[in-house]
Design brief:
The complex is a heterodimer of chains A (410) and B (374). With 410 residues, chain A is an alpha/beta fold. Chain A has 16 helices and 14 strands. In chain B, strand 9, helix 12 and strand 10 form a beta-alpha-beta unit. The chains are: A alpha/beta (410), B alpha/beta (374). Chain A: This is Formate dehydrogenase, mitochondrial.
């Protein structure tokens, strides 16, 4: 027992002397870096065979946003990986390791520790900047923040920074910013596509075509036009408005719910009606599209009860965040047909495990997280440039600044 | 002598097949797709054999005889049994009864051919015109349906949706496997070949996507509308094609358009073009499309029309890479069925009363073909 405890102390000290201590405050960002390069760490999805011969495909780990040459020529260090989750990574890793030490011999403790660390973990201790993306999210937990001694800036290449413990980042004095680029348009296009895929019952028809079949009735009995339907967006921020604009010529009744009302002129231009009460809006809708960030308020907000308020046969599209929905409640409602179709590219967690119920529920139009993956390499470059020079970012890009969270996350 | 008598009979038959003379009980035959197990799923599912356009009791209460079948192929099919004495034949593009010159010749009582939907190319129109028949369709009944569906297929192909869906249902997760060839519609050049009703509805729906919109047609759109939609007229089709990232076919199938997209014309398109065709399969050269998809010259081909229909099990478009094909469904959504059933009922009512149809519905009238088929 004493030997095990000694081994445990050695392992814990190997993780870093301050591993379990609170992080220091005041990692102020916007002072120009004095001398010496920074260490930039990026976590992106692997391109694999698709990386070759496709130089425009900057968002994959292999092409590293196309900024390696630029960073290294300025004397910065740039480490890029897709390896973000060890088997026991995340905020419980220390706890699990300690537990395992009591149960294991010294030899297996060492092996277990080696297995735990993802590539990302190795670079946390000295990274100044961590670039992450929602499509392959590095979960930046409070404990990881605590261990990232040099960290100053968290950049999300994409939209949505809920994979970062924002409260912990704020408490640690970190800056969190997003580089959305054209992703807002990408996501809005993708939402409209999924609305049409489900309303028009496209997938059973495609399945017939590739299976050598022909049964018009098998598709037509539950295929509708979008025209004339009541379509609502829950959330009318940047993406919600872009969606409403693209929906306008379809001749639907457009509703929206949000904390804030759209300006009257824009409301009229979009042709959308404000619904102050979400639960009063839901039963009116043939189609509901999610367009809110994942926050403590929105997590799990679409549970069994709220889904039951929706019209029988509703179509739901969610390219926002999987955890906004109650996973099992959605699967159950698709199985009964209360939800006639559910589509989206977001899950919890991501990557989605092989047995995630949304893969197998009837009438789904799911994909991996792809709708906004045109990662804006240029935008990241511009943001890093400002960081190196000690300049502010565009105001709307801040998610955490000087200890404060952006409005949508409060 | 026999020949003279026969000719006299034929002349009388032609002149008396004037559709807009009222008469007693008529025999109406309808050919639609069968619903089978899906028949009872939806009371509004009127477009199938079982639903019979929802007009059976209306017809029978007036003393007419209404036969509905899906059996249309071959000399022993159900349709053949009724050719000789039917007055009206209702067909639909989603399960088309091919009304050949030979069938027209044998259909002695036939006066009226109604298409429940749009597109009457499954009928030998010159033969119908020569025989004095009237051909009409429910113009406008599913134009919105088809336009919505075209935009859907453009997005599916450009955004590379289907490989992502395949991954999901197979338990996989590989973002790069989709993202390496996924694009936004914004900023792309989209050309519609044909800017009639459906083409215009498509252009209107494309407008907020901020594309570069081009159109080719025999006729230029009214300048006011052209400006409102934001589309540029391209007089020369072959000059337009190489400019386009996306091409949508929106022409009827006529003698002029049959096979117009052959190997040579496809080669004029940009490498990596997306093609959507909800118009008619026979506008394309079947094999040329399949080969261009295999080579990647066409990065994605989607549509709900084939030649012939139903498409045989071995039709190459089922198996070519990067397709977004379905059976012929875009114009037979429940909403469209209700509209074209209503339109057929209206025209039957006018026919019984000897009244004209809405002028835009005529495809063949008094020996003349509608302009798009000339």
């Amino acid at each position: 027992m004493a030997a095990i405890m000694r081994a445990a102390r050695q392992v814990v000290s190997a993780l870093g002397p301050h591993a379990l201590r609170d992080a220091p405050a005041g990692r102020s960002l916007h002072t120009a870096s004095t001398g010496g390069g920074k260490k930039i760490v990026g976590v992106f999805y692997k391109g694999g065979e698709y990386a070759d011969g496709n130089p425009d495909f900057v968002g994959c780990a292999e092409h590293a946003l196309g900024i390696r040459g630029w960073l290294e020529s300025q004397g910065h260090q740039y480490v890029v990986t897709d390896d973000k989750d060890g088997p026991n990574c995340g905020e419980h890793s220390i706890t699990n390791l300690t537990f395992s030490l009591y149960m294991a011999s010294a030899t297996s403790v060492t092996l277990h520790y080696t297995r735990v660390a993802a590539e990302l973990e190795k670079h946390l201790a000295d990274a100044h900047v961590l670039i992450t993306t929602p499509f392959h999210p590095a979960y930046v937990t409070a404990s990881r923040i605590a261990r990232a001694r040099n960290l100053e800036l968290l950049l999300t290449a994409g939209i949505g920074s809920d994979h970062v413990d924002l409260a912990a980042a704020a408490a640690a004095g970190l800056t969190v910013a997003e580089v959305t680029g054209s992703n807002t348009v990408s996501v809005a296009e993708d939402q409209l596509m999924r609305v049409l895929v489900l309303v028009r019952n496209f997938l059973p028809g495609h399945r017939q075509a590739v299976a050598g079949e022909w049964d018009v009735a098998g598709v037509a009995h539950r295929a509708r036009d979008l025209e004339g339907k009541t379509v609502a967006t829950v959330g009318a921020g940047r993406i919600g408005r872009l969606l409403l604009r693209r929906l306008k010529p379809f001749g639907c009744r457009l509703l929206y719910h949000d904390r804030l009302r759209i300006q009257p002129e824009m409301e009229e231009e979009l042709g959308a009606e404000f619904e102050a009460d979400l639960d009063a809006m839901l039963p009116k809708c043939d189609v509901v599209v999610m367009n809110m960030p994942l926050t403590d308020k929105t997590r799990g907000m679409f549970d069994k009860d709220r889904i039951a308020r929706m019209k029988k046969g509703v179509i739901i599209v969610n390219n926002a965040r999987g955890a906004i929905m109650d996973t099992q409640a959605v699967a159950d409602a698709c199985a009964t047909g209360h939800i006639a179709g559910y589509g989206g590219d977001v899950w919890h967690p991501q990557p989605a495990p092989k047995d995630h119920p949304w893969r197998y529920m009837p009438n789904n139009a799911m994909t991996p997280h792809i709708s906004g993956t045109t990662i804006d390499g240029q935008g990241v470059k511009d943001t890093l440039e400002r960081y190196f020079k000690g300049q502010d970012f565009p105001a709307q890009n801040y998610i955490v600044k000087e200890g404060k969270l952006a409005g949508q996350y409060q | 002598m026999w020949r003279a008598a026969a000719r006299h009979l034929v002349d009388r038959a032609i002149s008396s097949r004037a559709a807009h003379t009222s008469a007693g009980s008529k025999k109406i035959v309808g050919v639609f797709y069968k619903a089978g197990e899906y028949a009872d799923k939806n009371p509004n599912f009127v477009g199938c054999v079982e639903g019979a356009l929802g007009i059976r009791s209306w017809l029978e209460s007036q003393g007419h005889h209404y036969i509905v079948t899906d059996d249309k192929e071959g000399p022993n099919c159900e349709l053949e049994k009724h050719i000789e004495d039917m007055h009206v034949l209702i067909t639909t593009p989603f399960h088309p009864a091919y009304v050949t010159a030979e069938r027209i010749k044998r259909a002695k009582n036939l006066e009226l051919l109604l298409t429940a939907g749009i597109g009457s190319d499954h009928i030998d129109l010159p033969a119908a015109a020569a025989a004095g028949l009237t051909v009409a369709e429910v113009t406008g009944s599913n134009t919105v349906s088809v336009a919505e569906d075209e935009l859907l297929r453009i997005l599916i192909l450009l955004r590379n949706f289907l490989p992502g869906y395949q991954q999901v249902v197979q338990g996989e997760w590989n973002v790069a496997g989709i993202a390496h060839r996924a694009y936004d519609l914004e900023g792309k050049t989209v050309g519609t070949v044909g800017a009639g009703r459906i083409g215009r509805l498509l252009l209107q729906r494309l407008k907020p996507f901020n594309c570069n919109l081009l159109y080719h047609d025999r006729l230029q759109i009214d300048p006011q509308l052209e400006k409102e939609i934001g589309a540029k007229f391209e007089e020369d089709l072959d000059a337009m094609l190489p400019k386009c990232d996306v091409i949508v076919i929106n022409t009827p199938l006529t003698e002029k358009t049959k096979g117009m997209f052959n190997k040579e014309r496809i080669a004029k398109m940009k490498k990596g073009v997306i093609v959507v065709n909800n118009a008619r399969g026979a506008i394309m050269d079947t094999q040329a499309v399949a080969e261009a998809c295999s080579s990647g010259h066409i990065a994605g081909y989607g549509g709900d029309v084939w030649f012939p229909q139903p498409a045989p099990k071995d039709h190459p478009w089922r198996y070519m890479p990067n397709h977004a094909m379905t059976p012929h469904i875009s114009g037979t959504t429940i909403d469209a069925q209700l509209r074209y059933a209503e339109g057929v009922k209206d025209m039957l009512d006018r026919y019984f009363k000897g009244e004209d149809f809405p002028v835009q519905n005529y495809i063949v009238k008094e020996g003349q073909l509608a302009s798009q088929y000339q």
